[in-house]
Each structure stands twice: as C-alpha cells, then as structure tokens.
Amino acid sequence: MTSEKMSWAVADAVDYKGFPADKARTGGWVPAALILGIEICERLSTMGIAVNLVTYLIGTMHLPSATSANIVTDFMGTSFLLCLLGGFLADSFLGRYKTIAIFSLIQTLGTGMLAVSTKLPQLRPPPCRPHQTSCHQATGLQMGILYLSLYLIALGTGGLKSSVSGFGTDQFDGNDPKEKAQMAYFFNRFFFFISTGTLLAVTVLVYIQDEVGRSWAYGICSVSMFSAILIFLSGTKRYRYKKSVGSPIVHIFQVLVASFKKRNVEFPSSIGYLYEDAPESSRILHTDQFRCLDRAAVVVEGDFPGANGAAVSMPPNPWRLSSVTRVEEVKMMVKLLPIWATTIIFWTTYAQMITFSVEQASTMERTIGGFMIPAGSLTVFFVAAILISLGVYDRVIMPFWKKWKGKPGFTNLQRIALGLVLSTFGMAASALIERKRLSVAKAAGPTTPTLPVSVFYLIPQFFLVGAGEAFIYTGQLDFFITQSPKGMKTMSTGLFLTTLSLGFFISSFLVSIVKRVTRTRGRQGWLADNINFGRLDLFYGLLAILSLINFVAYLVCAVWYKPQVNLKPVVEMENNKMGNGSMQAEERV
C-alpha cells in the first residue's frame, strides 16, 4: 500500500503542508490556469500603461518626443531587469509562490497610485491654450509622483514575472510522459494567454484611457490584479511546490572563486579524479568546454575541514571545492550567454512598436466612419500577428512537422532565428513606410494635425515584428528553461527576461546617441520633437542594419552551441566513484 502511494507522489515536489505532492490531488492544468490568470492581469496592466504612455507624456505632461520614448523604454527595461531580483528572492528566501503573491500586491499598489496621479489636476501641468507656441512642462514634483507610480509597477512586474512561468511548469511532472507532453504545450498556452491580456490592454483599456479617462483605466488594472491575487491564493492547496536549493547566483560564484583560487593547479590524469558528491541519478556528464572551470573540482590539501582531525566526514568548503555536477551547471549557464546576447537586439526593435510607431499613428488618418481609432490601439495588429502566428504554428506547422520530420515543431533555436528574421524585415518595412509618411507630411505641411494618409499603412511593421515576437518569445522561454540546470530555472527565466530589459535600455541609449549625433545648428536631426520634422525612416533603417548584423552573429552562436547531455554512462559513473573515493581517501590520510 505504501509503495502504491509513493507511485502517486511527485518525486521532487511537496504540497502546501510540506508532504510529498499527491499527483491525483495537486498540479495539472487547473492550478496552472490559476497561475496564468495572474499573468494575464499583469500583462493587462503593464502593456495597457506602456503602449499609450507616450501619448500621455507628450500630450498631457508636455514632454519632448524623444524624452517621452525614453521614459517608456526605461520603465519597461527596469520592469524586466528587476526579474533578476525576483528570481534571487524566490530561489533564496521566499519560494515562487510567496514571491508571486507579494510582488503582485506591490504592482496593485503601483497601478492604484498611478490612477490617483492621473486623476488629480495638481499632479499635471495646465493644458495648452489654443495657438500657444510652447506649453508648460510637468514640474519635478509631478514627474516624481509619476515615476514613483511607474517604478512600483516595474518592481511588482519584475518580482512576479520571474516566477510565474517557473511555478506554472512546477505543476507538471517531467518524469511522467503524459505530464511532460502537457508541459511542452504549456509554453505556447502561456504565451497565448499573456497575448490575450495584451490584446485587452491595447483595445479595451486604451479606448477607456482616451475616451473615459486614464484614472478609470488604471483603476481597472488595480482592481483586476487584486482579483487575480485572490483567485491565485484560492489554489494554494492544489499547487505543487518545489523545495528551494539556495541561490544559484551564490553557487555560480562559488565555482568561479574555487576555480580562480586553483588557477595554477595541474589537472589530474583522469577526469575520474575530479570531486563528485551528487547522487548518481542527478549527476551531469563532464564536458570539455570551459576546462578552466574544472579546476574547481580538483581536490587539493585543505579542501576538507578537519581532514587530519576527528571531523573527517565534514563536507568540503564550497568556496574551495565544487563537485563536477556543480561545475557543469555553471558551464551550462555560461553556454547560454552567446544566445542570450544575440537576442537582445530584437527587443530594441520591439520597443519602437510601443513608442515611435504609436507616435506615427497619432499623426495619421485614424477614422473609420465616425469612430476614431486610438493611436495606442494600433498595436492590436501587433497582438493579432502574435495570436495568428501561434495558432498557425500550433495547429498547422507542428502537426505537419511531426509527420514530415518526426519532431513536434521547430527547435527553440530555429524559432528564435525565425523571430530575428521577421523583425529585421519589420524594421526595413518601417523605414519604407515612414518615408512614405514623411513625403505626405512634406506635401501637406509638417504642422498639419492629421496627415491625409491612412494609419493602416503601419500594419506591415506591426505584423512582421509581432509575428517575430511570437516565435522568439516562445523559443527563448523554452530554450532558457529547458537548457538550464534544474536548480537554476528561476534564475534562467530572469536571465531570459533581462534580454527584454537590455533591449529597452539599448533603445533609450540609441535614441539619445542618434538625437545627439544627428542634431545640427538649426535642425533637430533624425529624432525631432515633432516627428514630421525628423528622419525617423533613417533611424528605422539603422535598426534594420543592426538587426541583420545581429542575425549573422546569432547563426554563428547557434552553430557553436551544444546541448547538455544529462545522462551519464554507467562505466564513467563507476570510474568516478572509484576515483573520487581513492582521491578523497588519500587527502584525508
């Protein structure tokens, strides 16, 4: 009877009481859906604010175009950068469940404060009067309250986002073939749901911001997030929890410090003499890449405290000696870095879709019958491209590929490559479309409020970059979670999300550099305060060239990358056992 109960328990998970998780009573799609619900509301809040914030900063706070774009990208960049903090806290102290609950409350507070700051007239500059040449910009206090609200939201987003996908995958047992297959579909479902949240944000929420009031829209964000927290907490008894194994950042530094201390130590004649203390079932096969890190597993005198005294059984000092498995885990993380670096530029191009592209839309003809499309709602084509791409991939490409190649769809690296190609074409299309818009502006007069050119000209750039995101986001998430060590999956999710962060920060950096370099006496350069007087097409062209160069670099890194093989040959394990035993015995004598 006991063995039957154990067979229904998930090996590395516990329930809310700390007992082994019962497979029949915990985990699966229902708890995963409760977790996805909080991610939908997070995306509703974050994207609902980001896609239309530039128009608020320009139209209400009276800030210059480039400055407004940089505020948006800095806000988004900080949101994703703080995912590293959230991942560290989840791995080291709080666990994923508590991290999600705490930081979603912080985001709720931030959106509530933003609703108040956009409601009170004292926190906004006076509106521009007719025929007024220059308007009063927001004061330091007004911008300070706005920044406080935005960065509380960024803190909440960073904390919960680092743990949501990992906690969702925790609900499936990777050792169960049926649940493992469900986990494979979880990534696509995960992205589909957060895209649904984005769709609501760029349609319903943006419309409420423009037509009803921003304070109402941000209040809806706060209430919906609080409701999602209550729904999330309702699943407490159904969740599976993974035990924390300590901060992976500390483990990484331990290996680096140990290998540096032993930089002059000679390698043993056989890898069987390297130290290993991990259980055989969880050992990782030794690899020849980054051999300098193997020195951390070389046993030398003084690695075992009390070796000459009574405390012979004391474990080694982890800052002096690491196991082969721990070293290989660090190698796995290091191998992710080239792919990580070559996906950053995509998010730089993505940043233009919620900043300059929205500003382009605000100058173009947006009426259908008697209805005026909000400029921020043009990103609906961006979200539609994501949903269509995911649907076609899930229902058409994956079954076809499985029948033809015997594999369930493209590999994660192939999806990333496809996303980079589509975004490159998207930037090239953006440059051509902007050139068309500028020619119309020149003919109609740059000061014309609404140019006689349809906003639907912007659809190709939204569609191409949106389809690119569908492939690159799912490919990146799959790659960083499946190719990282088991105990470092939360940190690897944070590492993946830093590509978004750095992409936004690089966008801000590029905007500042281009604005400074191209500005001449009497001319505002490519990125003028009024885009009708600038050359945004050249800026888009620059991004297209950078994307092409980055794609070539990515191909080199993808060819170089070798997936980790986790299965350890029996003969080598036996050699390791014999070698480790004899070597450690020699050191302790």
From TrEMBL:
Coiled coil: none annotated. Keywords: Membrane, Transmembrane, Transmembrane helix. PROSITE patterns: PTR2_1 (PS01022). It is found in: Membrane. Signal peptide: none annotated. The chain crosses the membrane at residues 44-63, 75-94, 101-120, 140-160, 190-209, 215-233, 336-356, 368-393, 453-473, 494-518, 538-561. One of its GO terms (biological process) is oligopeptide transport. One of its GO terms (cellular component) is membrane. GO terms for molecular function: transmembrane transporter activity. The keyword Transmembrane helix applies. It is a multi-pass membrane protein. Pfam families: PTR2. Belongs to the major facilitator superfamily. Proton-dependent oligopeptide transporter (POT/PTR) (TC 2.A.17) family. This is Protein NRT1/ PTR FAMILY 6.2 isoform X1. It comes from Punica granatum (Pomegranate). The gene is LOC116201795.
